[in-house]
Specification:
Strand order of the largest sheet: 1-3-2
Radius of gyration: 17 Å
CATH class: Mainly Alpha
CATH topology: Multidrug-efflux Transporter Regulator, Chain: A, Domain 2
InterPro entries: HTH_17 (IPR041657), SinI_DNA-bd (IPR010093)
Helix content: 25-40%
Shape: globular
Number of domains: 1
Largest sheet: 3 strands, antiparallel
Organism: Streptomyces chartreusis
Structural class: alpha+beta
GO molecular function, one term: DNA binding
Pfam families: HTH_17
Protein name: Helix-turn-helix domain-containing protein
CATH architecture: Orthogonal Bundle
Amino acid sequence: MQHELTAPAQKQDATGEPLKVKDIAAALRVDSTTVYRLIDAGQLDAYRVGSGRGTIRVSRTAFTAYLEARGIPAAELAVTL
């Protein structure tokens, strides 16, 4: 039996992937607990992925909107997102 080799799946562009709470915490130089509080207070839009408790993700658009609403320039973040 002959198998055809297929090209590996292309990786998604990193700019389109949602952010993890720990990534946002590192960018803002705060603890993850602070990010969870922002989400609980409705100041930062997030969604849950997976079954059970799952994990929380924040879209890059929501994070950008959060930064713009507070006047935080992206250049001042601790990490590049």
